[in-house]
Amino acid sequence: MSELGVIGSINMDLVVRAPRFPKPGETVSGGELQMVPGGKGANQAVAMARMGRRTALFGRVGDDVFGPRLRENLQEEGIDVARVEILPGVATGVALIVLDEHGQNTIVSSHGANDAMKEDEIPALLEDWSAIQLVVMQMELPLDVVEAAIRGAKARGMQVILNAAPADVRARDWFSDIDVLIVNETEAELLSGLEVADVASATAAGKALCAEGCESVILTLGPDGALLIDGGQVQHVPAIEVEVVDTTGAGDAFVGAFTAMRAEGVSNLTAVRHGVCAGALAVGVLGAQASLPSRSAVERLYDEEFGG
To answer: What is the chain's Cα-based Rg?
Structure first.
């Protein structure tokens, strides 16, 4: 029986390294093309499974060359894929990712089968997941589906974590039904209307989001670590200095580790610290799912940085 549920996207990431990002109209020679399983929903489910939590995923792939391969990969990770359907005649979601020499990325996604999910599927899904107490969502799906899932899960007494990525102002309408909102700087700016340039301005944005109804808000700040606004208290967890190879998937590593630890009943601060450790480990490896760390690796780094 699964403990955690993820409703989200499943993609194949097509990744190319280049010395720099091309300017408009320019061609830049890159390295070898790599095909890496991705999609925020799939990534976060894998991150939770590697943290030792029994996880179920609801998503869609196409019947092309990518779809069955992605579903099989998820199953090999120990994820319950009973609600991951292969749709005939539909393309699987694809993300085109360019990495520069510093490990920063630009991403263009084609949603494909992810956009075939319908809000009227949610009630039956949540009925199947009646034993699951915590559900995680992102915003790479049709927003009607995300809203139906948030409302339905909350009505059933489930905890709801929303990683509002990519952000849309419509998420503001759901704040009262969200237990934990996780956003990066760009997403926090869009949802709060406040500029985020440093820890101080991130604190102001996080407090504004809490004031609009979120119970807890977490801002992931890249090299500045993460910020937790919880019950009126603000706590900053600095980043861990590591060599950056590829930032793709670091946010998903954070969400997965945070969620797994919250499900174990630890404090949000302890869970955030585990998330920061997972994100630090993820940026040292190329690819999204390939970079997601094991529970033992996260715990070792946690012990080193936070003293056990």
So the answer is: 18
147 — phi, psi (to 5°)? -65, -45
Q: List, for residues 88-105, the tens digit of each pLDDT value.
A: 999 999 989 898 888 788
| pLDDT tier, 239 (very low <50, low <70, confident <90, very high otherwise) | very high
* H-run or E-run covering 297: helix 295-306
**Helix intervals (H) in the chain:** 40-50, 67-76, 122-128, 143-155, 185-192, 199-211, 250-263, 268-282, 295-306
Sequence spans of domains, the chain: 4-9+40-91+117-306
- The residues, any chain, with a CB within 8 Å of residue 62's CB and separated by 6 or more, are 86, 87, 89, 90, 91, 92, 112, 113
Q: Half-sphere exposure of residue 55, counting CA atoms within 13 Å on the CB side?
A: 31
The amino acid at residue 5 is: G
Q: What is the pLDDT of residue 1?
A: 64
How far apart are the C-alpha atoms of 217 and 188, rounded to whole Å? Answer: 10
Catalytic residue among 13, 80, 246, 252: 252
pTM: 0.93
CB-based contact 166:139 (threshold 8 Å): yes
- Catalytic residue at 224? no
Tell me, which fold does domain 4-9+40-91+117-306 have in CATH? Answer: UDP-N-acetylmuramoyl-L-alanine:D-glutamate ligase (3.40.1190)
pLDDT digit string, tens, across residues 7-65: 999 999 998 999 999 999 999 999 999 898 999 999 999 999 999 999 999 999 999 99
DSSP codes of every residue in 56-85: EEEEEEESSSSHHHHHHHHHHTT-EEEEEE
Q: Is 144 helix (H, G, I), strand (E, B) or coil?
A: helix
Q: Which two tokens stand for residue 279?
A: 């994100």
